């Protein structure tokens, strides 16, 4: 199966555009899942309580500096599979290229549903698997053992859209995009909003 890109923009350009268009609209207590170095904070409204969750020690120092810059915000040194927050305690969750990396995607999404308040939203931008028997999927599966080691545990061949739709949200709205990839492949991407 041959897949053609649906955009000329790269995955990074699409992610930056998504972040600039979606994150400023979030309000209240916002959990940033796998916050990395905390770049999401740049696009959040100043009155948002940013809760940056990150398990990797290597990112923590830089992330802590960013959290301190925003009064009221918090840093959680934890994994998405075991979020140290009470039930129904946040208004929104950000997942930006993190559900590819979590150890147990089903458990992480169950935790997201648990900590969201009714009516709260998961906003997400993720790279996902190509269709079965596509060149893209063949490359993703071949590259998986390497990316798992060198890229924060990333598995590029996950059907994250299906996992989100099966996680128990009240509604899911999603847009799919195929960005240009390497060696004649594409990078399949999803961006969307899931309402609890
Ligand atoms: C590609 S980075 C994305 C960082 C950030 N969300 C962004 O958009 O710049 C993936 C992040 O997921 C984190 N991560 C890996 N496993 C995780 C887990 N089980 N729970 C939460 N975050 C995890 C990694 O440490 C890393 O910071």
Automatic annotation (TrEMBL):
Ranges annotated as spanning the membrane: none
Hydrolase recorded as keyword: no
BP-aspect Gene Ontology terms: methylation
InterPro entries xrefs: Methyltransf_11, SAM-dependent_MTases_sf, Thiol_S-MT
GO molecular function: methyltransferase activity
Source species, domain of life: Bacteria
Alphabetical UniProt keywords: Methyltransferase, Transferase
Domain called Methyltransferase type: residue spans: 31-123
Pfam families: Methyltransf_11 (PF08241)
The protein, known as: Class I SAM-dependent methyltransferase
């Amino acid at each position: 199966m041959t897949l053609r890109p649906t955009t000329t923009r790269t995955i990074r350009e699409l992610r930056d555009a998504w972040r600039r268009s979606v994150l400023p609209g979030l309000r209240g207590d916002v959990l940033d899942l796998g916050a990395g170095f905390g770049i999401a904070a740049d696009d959040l409204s100043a009155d948002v309580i940013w809760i940056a969750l990150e398990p990797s020690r290597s990112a923590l120092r830089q992330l802590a500096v960013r959290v301190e810059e925003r009064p009221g915000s918090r840093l959680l040194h934890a994994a998405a599979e075991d979020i140290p927050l009470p039930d129904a305690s946040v208004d929104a969750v950000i997942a930006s290229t993190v559900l590819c990396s979590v150890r147990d995607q089903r458990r992480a999404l169950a935790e997201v549903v648990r900590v969201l308040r009714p009516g709260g939203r998961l906003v997400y931008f993720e790279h996902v698997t190509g269709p079965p028997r596509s060149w893209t999927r063949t490359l993703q599966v071949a590259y998986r053992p390497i990316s798992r080691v060198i890229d924060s545990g990333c598995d590029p061949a996950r059907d994250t859209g299906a996992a989100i739709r099966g996680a128990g949200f009240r509604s899911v709205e999603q847009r799919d995009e195929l960005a240009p990839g390497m060696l004649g492949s594409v990078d399949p991407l999803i961006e969307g909003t899931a309402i609890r």
